[in-house]
Amino acid sequence: MTDHQQKASSISLSLSRRLLLLGVLPALLMFSVLVAFFTWVRLDDARDSMAQSSQLLADNLAPVLEYAIVSGNSFALEQVLENALEHSDADWVRVMDVVGEEIGFSSEDNPSVDINARRYQVYESEIFQEPLMLGEKNEAEWFLTGWNTGAGILRIGTVQVGVSTETLDLKLRSIWWSSLLVGGGTLLFAIIFVQIFLGNILRPMQNLGSRVGNLIRGDYRAEPIHSKGVAAEIVDFQQQLNELAQRLQDLKTTRDETLAVSEAERKKAEHASRVKSEFLSSMRQELNIPLNGVIGMIKHIEQEPLTARQEDYLNTAKKSLQDLLTVISDMLDYAHLDSGAKALDAKPFDLRELISNCIASYRHAAEQQELSLESHCLGDWPDKAMVIGDAPRVRQVLSGLLDNSLELTSNGFITVRTNWVKVDAQHVLISCTVRDSSSSTQNANNLHNPHTHSRYGGAGFNLSMVQRLVELMGGHVHIELDMGQGTSFRFEIPFDLPVTE
User: Fold this and answer.
1) For residues 467 and 477, is the Cβ–Cβ distance under 8 A?
2) 417, β-bridge pairs
3) pTM for the full predicted model
4) What tens digit of pLDDT does each residue of 10-36 get?
5) Which are the contacts of 261, defined by CB distance < 8 A and separation ≥ 6?
6) Are 403 and 454 in contact (CB under 8 A)?
7) Which among 59, 229, 308, 352 is least buried, having the fewest CB atoms inside 10 angstroms?
8) Cα–Cα distance for residue pair 362/386, rounded to 1 Å
9) Which helix (H) or strand (E) holds 26?
10) b/e per residue, 343-368, with b = 16+ CB within 10 A?
């Protein structure tokens, strides 16, 4: 069983217990109260019934024993006592005269029983002799003697009935056991009935929980719906789960098909990119040979005596061929960058010298366009600004930004500010800003346009290539457009410092 199934099972068990308690607990409390009440009533009735029957026995024996006591007939007295014991729950019956002397005793089991024991409950009644009424008063005067007290009723003895408390305890225990059996059986029947009733509710809910778990694990098969004895709401929910499973299965099928198509397209794109890179690399080599041969022949022709027009034509052809070689070189570099090739070199070089030489190569072009080209090194630059990196790539980045500024700036200025920020003993951050007086929004577009090339000398990289190169070296590029004030390109590149001995 999985963790999800165990969790769902524990939740369902908890829910079943709660529902069981919710359904049974009030009924159990009410039933217990009723059983306790009726048991107490029965126990009280048993006590009262025992006391009343014993007292009634004593009261009924008193007039019956009058004749036997007055006549002194002990045999009749014993017969009456034995008959009373046979038809009652009493353990013994005792008869005493007016002075407390025992004149009759009968016991059910043992004649020598201890009637004073605490386990006996004693009920007694007085025995009286009533006068015989013969008629009118004057007719009965002959019966009167000198001993007449005037009351007419004489107390001649006492009858005592002893009932053992064990008999009462047996009845009480019988009542308790009957109450427990009846109550327990009824309660057990109620619990079984509630369990069966709740099972018809909880089983479908458990099935719903396991069904949701199957959907989570990706099993989208439709399951049969059992509506017999199940609530209509649960049946509707099962139907909705089947519809959801079908929708998920359709989405999974569509996703698998889309992924298969995407994978095939990705492989095609990778193959096309590899073929493109191989084609550009071979084309560069194939084109460089004849173009360099043409340039060489042009140089030989320049050594011959030519007219001014012929020299101008040769110079134009030479520059066009050089530009064509630059474009071919850029195409190969862009193909390598676009395919994700990280062809970076890591060698020590003097960063200040590289920046100075690069700017110097653009000074003549700037003067021809009547632009002022200035360079400033800010920060705590060392005498030998040696860093470890790819010097040609750094020069291509700076050349690309200078190309862009020369192309879009007709007059004004171009300023290069390079800041040296030492991070720690092994790392330095170079922040270089190329600012010009142009205000064209084309700079922002060129930053993400991989098909725009500049017209001037240097590497001839477009701004998209600049961004790719800087990111390849672990840096980033920012552009700031100040309408009417100029345009600023700033790139930041981290470098490692060579280990000094």
Assistant:
1) yes
2) 376, 433
3) 0.40
4) 444 455 556 555 656 676 677 777 777
5) none
6) yes
7) 308
8) 23
9) helix 3-71
10) eeeeeebebbebbeebbeebeebbee
